[in-house]
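Bug #77: duplicate submission created two jobs. Keeping one. Sequence:
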Amino acid sequence: MSVIAGSATSNTTPVDGTGTAAVFWGGGDMVLDPVSGNLLVSDVGRLRQVTMSGQVTTLDQTFAWTGLAMDASENLYGSPQTNKEPNYPFLVKRTPAGVIQTLIPPAAASSPDISLSSIAVDASGNIYGADTQNRQIIRITQAGAISVIAGSGANGSADGTGTAASFSDPSGIAFDPAGNLWVADNGNGVRKISPDGVVTTVMPGLSLSAITVDHAGNVYASSGFNLVRIDTTGKQVTYNFIAGAAGSNFLGALATDSNGALYVETRGAGAQIVKMTFN
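Kept job's structure:
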C-alpha cells in the first residue's frame, strides 16, 4: 500500500498540489481514465484529476460530480443530482475536450424523480445507475431513454429477475469482464445482476458504500473501515484498513487499473488516494 496524493491533515478545504501537498475532503467517487491512466475524483463540488505521479489539479467546479463513470472514448459521466440540487441536471457528459453536455435535465414534468448514487457504462455506451431514491437499477441510453433493469422499488432483499428482485439502498455499481453488474446494496451486501437481469446475493449482510471490479474479475467493496475482496473463485477476504496508515481510514471510492492494482479514496479530514496491490 502506498499513498499517491493527499495529506494526513485536519484541513478539509481542497488544495491542489503534488503528493502530500494536495488536500482532499474525500467521500465522492473515482474512476480511472483507461487512456491516460489518470484518476478522476469528485471532491465536494469539484472534479479533480490525479496523475500516477501524484499531481492533483481541479478540472471543474460546476457540479457536485457524483457517480463518476467513463467510457472507452474518455467521455466522463457524472450525476450532479445526488443531493437533489433543484437546478442541477440528473446526468451530464464531459467530453475529452472538456465540453459538458446535459443528458438528463433538472427535474421537470418530463423528467423522472431519480437520485443516482453510482453509475457505470457498458460496452455499447449505455449508462447504468443505482437509483437510491427508488431502490432500483436503471439503464439510460445516450438519447436519454430510461428503463428499469432490476428492482421492484420496494425496500427488500429478494433475489429474482428484473423487477421481481428488491434492493434496500443500492449505493455502488460496477461491471465485470463478463458483463455482470455488481451492486453494493447497503445493508444487504454484495449482489450481482447477470446480463439477462437475474439478481443474486453473493455476500449478504454488509453495509457498503462503493464497489469496483478489476480486469480479471476480482470484486472489491468498501465497508466502513474494511475492504472486502471476492476473487474469481468466490473466495471472500476482508481486510482492515489500519488506522493511521493512510490518514483518514474510512473507505470511500474505489477504482482499478489494467494491471489489477486497486485505488482507494479515504474520506474526511486527512483523506488520501492510496494504491494497493495484492499477491
